[in-house]
Amino acid sequence: EELNGVGNLMDFLDEPFPDVGTYEDFHTIDWLREKSRDTDRHRKITSKSKESIWEFIKSLLDAWSGWLVMLLIGLLSGTLAGVIDLAVDWMTDLKEGVCLSALWYSHEQCCWTSNETTFADRDKCPQWQKWAELMTGYTEGAGVYLLNYFLYVLWALFFSFLAVSLVRVFAPYACGSGIPEIKTILSGFIIRGYLGKWTLLIKTVTLVLAVSSGLSLGKEGPLVHVACCCGNLFCSLFSKYSKNEGKRREVLSAAAAAGVSVAFGAPIGGVLFSLEEVSYYFPLKTLWRSFFAALVAAFTLRSINPFGNNRLVLFYVEYHTPWYMAELVPFILLGVFGGLWGTLFIRCNIAWCRRRKTTRLGKYPVLEVIAVTGITAVLAFPNPYTRRSTSELISELFNDCGALESSQLCDYINNPNMSRSVDDIPDRPAGPGVYSALWQLTLALVFKIVITIFTFGMKIPSGLFIPSMMAYHHHDWIIFKNWCRPGADCVTPGLYAMVGAAACLGGVTRMTVSLVVIMFELTGGLEYIVPLMAAAVTSKWVADAFGKEGIYEAHIQLNGYPYLDQDEFTHRTLATDVMRPRRNEPPLAVLTQDSTTVEDVETLIKDTDYNGFPVVVSHESERLIGFVQRRDLILNIKNARQKQDGVVSNSVVYFTEDAPQIPASNPQPLKLRRILNLSPFTVTDHTPMETVVDIFRKLGLRQCLVTRSGRLLGIITKKDVLRHMAQMMNQDPESIMFN
Amino acid sequence: EELNGVGNLMDFLDEPFPDVGTYEDFHTIDWLREKSRDTDRHRKITSKSKESIWEFIKSLLDAWSGWLVMLLIGLLSGTLAGVIDLAVDWMTDLKEGVCLSALWYSHEQCCWTSNETTFADRDKCPQWQKWAELMTGYTEGAGVYLLNYFLYVLWALFFSFLAVSLVRVFAPYACGSGIPEIKTILSGFIIRGYLGKWTLLIKTVTLVLAVSSGLSLGKEGPLVHVACCCGNLFCSLFSKYSKNEGKRREVLSAAAAAGVSVAFGAPIGGVLFSLEEVSYYFPLKTLWRSFFAALVAAFTLRSINPFGNNRLVLFYVEYHTPWYMAELVPFILLGVFGGLWGTLFIRCNIAWCRRRKTTRLGKYPVLEVIAVTGITAVLAFPNPYTRRSTSELISELFNDCGALESSQLCDYINNPNMSRSVDDIPDRPAGPGVYSALWQLTLALVFKIVITIFTFGMKIPSGLFIPSMMAYHHHDWIIFKNWCRPGADCVTPGLYAMVGAAACLGGVTRMTVSLVVIMFELTGGLEYIVPLMAAAVTSKWVADAFGKEGIYEAHIQLNGYPYLDQDEFTHRTLATDVMRPRRNEPPLAVLTQDSTTVEDVETLIKDTDYNGFPVVVSHESERLIGFVQRRDLILNIKNARQKQDGVVSNSVVYFTEDAPQIPASNPQPLKLRRILNLSPFTVTDHTPMETVVDIFRKLGLRQCLVTRSGRLLGIITKKDVLRHMAQMMNQDPESIMFN
């Protein structure tokens, strides 16, 4: 009879209750456990697949589901990127005017479809009317200018108000760039809802609004977040991914690659970005699948063709002139500038964000957004380089001055005797347009630098790739122009803008290979890889000299996320210095293998908030048997009390194979060996912390037990490791907030 | 007095004897130990750097030495690749004839420098004379043909005899592709001399000879070996790398990337190849440095410009015609073909190599090489597609038929009324040249397939990238030609050759991302990435269906190297099933912390060949204290016996902090705590083997101790893990030969 009862219990435990094996919000996952759960699942499917054809097909479907998810992610994120591009284009122009022939046309589309315009006047067409023109009928005059100005600011305020309100009401996680959080999630942290459906929807909509409002922010970081939301969405279709936090993160890594792929039109760069910057666990299988997802996304976007140029990004360029060795000097100077700018930006931005977090400022996010938008719009309108969207500006700066270029930057004095080919432009003296453009650009640079510091981190979707790229240095080339031999092909101004962009982006994010590869994919040739490399290396070295962390790591630290970065731990501490309990602290909360009662366990659970408890032979010997999760204990005891007869507060809980010898008068004992992890991770107290950190990082542990010659001494959790690391770097250990 | 003695001993131990901490030949390194040694070194330098300016400069030099090594590797491997290319070009032509104006000119260079030739006859010039012409004066006739034939074969035999003799006499490790061994070395195995200076020199020379002899082998794999030798060479300049096997492997990973970069002219592909295919431990720092080394190597090669086309490889192509969706069907078929060919090749080649290893065949390597060269040369000469070097052939196949192309493959019947543009070729009917070329190509394909199986694995430098790429499928396009609408741009034959090459290479090596990226860098555009991707994916799937391992893994297994691959271990065994001692075996050889005598230790060392011994509290309690290396024990006892008074056979060896209580009459005890590893890695006997495999792989362990509730039960070494894995896959566990 009693044996039967145990047998029933076993069957019952074979089907775990719904929540067993899941994690609580803001907790760290255990990678080893997730991995072995997946292997179990895989084994089950493999053995079942031999039973029937249906099971075999099911096992094939399971094996292919990974590729299917990648395909879906690629398709959806490519489509969303295309839609966002089109919408931003239309809404940015909506701030200036409207297309009368079709309201949903952007300025460029409106005039392209009009057959009344010549190529030279392709920006002007009767169908496109500025608001003031539409309302008053006049096209010139101070009043008209002021009315346009006023309406421009009004639209900007309206867009940003809409964005911040949507975020606040529907999806608070949709704000910001998302990359720090995605890095943390990929390293094995749970933030429920951060990659949810609502976040996806609201982030897409508000991203369009925020970019269109003219704020100094880019769509690149948020696109990574959007792609990761897509990844999470499709994960929920397959239990293989939805029920395993480890497998889910493999999909998310690939989704991040797809996101960068569509943001920059650089599939290989996207994969390397995911590998280098955001991912934590990146097996080769994921590399291959990420590449697939990134390619699908890139081709989906290309078939949507949002910019009408058959390219994935607005600022794709192809240069044709070579560069000279002597030019390496300004390129390296650009690198130094980029590194300094990166350091400055990170410091100022973090200081401002900390201020926002700790003072009353953080209580009025809507007001803050409105204020920044207002200031941005008011200051941006008078300068033609800041009035337009940042990607249009970058596109213009990157471009070579061609014969057909109408940009003021290309306003060189034309010599009618010379043939107007692309290459002879540097021979001509610069016209007044170039000088005025340079002034405007310098103002734009200063303005963007300052405003971006305040913008990044506000409560709306914001990326900083593009704003960082903006902060290039465009003065060198005018100096060089004088230095060049007349008649020879000279420097390519666009190249300087691009190298400067790479340097600044490198200084801010500390990307290395992925940055160079993204730029390489943008220029489409090996020709300019040396300048880019020189600038990126210099920029990283200069920036690293002032502080090792990039903007994302800085924001992770600011928010206290439990992220274990790849930097080497070089201090000489031992496991015994980090483990808990410390001296003077109460002894470690442990369970014994066969002498704790249900009531004892319940008291322990109530009195402490540890995630799990070590199980030892007895309080005297302290020899370690295994480790049991708090969550599993709670669920099992609750279930046993409800469904298993004879389990009362006085029942002994045992973790051994056989029930302990107890007098017949005692209540029925409760066997919990099923939830006992018999292979907890242990290190000795003499293990150097650098090894412990390495083990935590590489194996993705949640906790590790410390022993000395077989006796349990203490426990080290991921939080303890992070706190210790913060302490060693003279930072506040209490800044690590989550467990 | 006694305390003083101990103090002296401590000082003496502070300067370890020369061999402490090194590994024996054919042994596995302990990655965790190497890493912590490097951290110690780094700490020392950092703390010293504050003492004086000179120490500060030294610390800066130390920090920059990594980049310096990368620069040197890039320069040397780029130069060597250029020299090899030039020498192969010259010597391949030497088999046919000689340039009278300058003996060191190849055929092409000879005629380019001659000003008597027109462009159409650029292959013919009076300065270039075939051997028969030079000897007899006649240029035509059967006798002349036969004499040329005979001399061609003779030269081939001479080259290959020279190559195999040089390898046998001077550097036996210079044979083969080298990639399986490099994979094993990078995973943490010691093969002394495999990357030595002699190997570098002889491999470079014999590679030229082997390729020039016309054997069906490529220079790509050996170039990786050559680059790794360069890496090892420069490591010896810096104690940071030469004295730390872990750090040395970081440099070697980067060198492998540089090797692929020059072999294919694909720096990004090289880095991904190193990451995906050969490297084991690849931190982000290495990624960035590898990229640098790969770029330097590529630019060095480009400045040497061995092919005179300003490209890094002979077969760089730029296609201009788009491809159609319907073409995906033949591309996927090519993938299937590639996968099947890969499987077939691996099976046949491994069967042949096993035969060579186990039968008398292996005893006559020189004869084997001579025989294969003879057969290759005799069969190759009559067919113009096999007579030339394989890379020239590939270059011709990859190329579009342009108006200036003199290749027989482009012998379409010209319609004089039509303008001779590049794109209209498909409209013209194929001439007789195309049909005869097709026949010859088919024969060449069959011939190459068969001969490569026998060539790869012979005792001369041989790579198989290029031969695999040869085995493309060139029939489809003639079918498609009829299917195309006349007047429209149709299929690009070169693209089919390239997709076929990618498919075959994928089938043989199971490369994925790196393969597509290398091909992408060869074509220089995103346009053809989808066909390449489709073929690569199909090829890998088809080939994987027949067996998971690529050619390199198969050769690693054939040679019994201790290589732990990245595949997931899915069996349900536990640590207790794998650990030693097994049941019925004698108990584990252990030392006790304070009761073993010097003589006991010496007996244990003599009687066993274990690499190390666990140290326990006592034989009764079996509680684990630490682990001590065999090598360290031998060295320390030998030294103590020589230099330390009072240490005799009867002395007690102790590993505790304080000397054990012993009677005054006993000899002086020997303290060995310094060599005791106080943090040996342990797992419980219940740990699933999948976790153990994961730990071995990720942490790079050499051995792991198995405990149950604090008591030492056994030990698992890397060899045990590999044997167990072989057993689980129904392979002979004794095939794992090294430890």
Automatic annotation (TrEMBL), chains A, B:
Residues 579-643, 676-734 form the CBS domain. It is found in: Endosome membrane; Membrane. It comes from the Eukaryota. InterPro entries: CBS_dom, CBS_dom_sf, Cl-channel_core, Cl_channel-4, ClC. PROSITE patterns: CBS. One of its GO terms (cellular component) is synaptic vesicle. Keywords: Antiport, ATP-binding, CBS domain, Chloride, Endosome, Ion transport, Membrane, Nucleotide-binding, Repeat, Transmembrane, Transmembrane helix, Transport. It is a multi-pass membrane protein. The chain crosses the membrane at residues 64-88, 149-171, 223-239, 251-275, 324-346, 366-385, 437-460. One of its GO terms (molecular function) is voltage-gated chloride channel activity. Pfam families: CBS, Voltage_CLC. PANTHER family: CHLORIDE CHANNEL PROTEIN, H(+)_CL(-) EXCHANGE TRANSPORTER 4. Belongs to the chloride channel (TC 2.A.49) family. This is Chloride channel protein. The lineage of its organism: Eukaryota, Metazoa, Chordata, Craniata, Vertebrata.
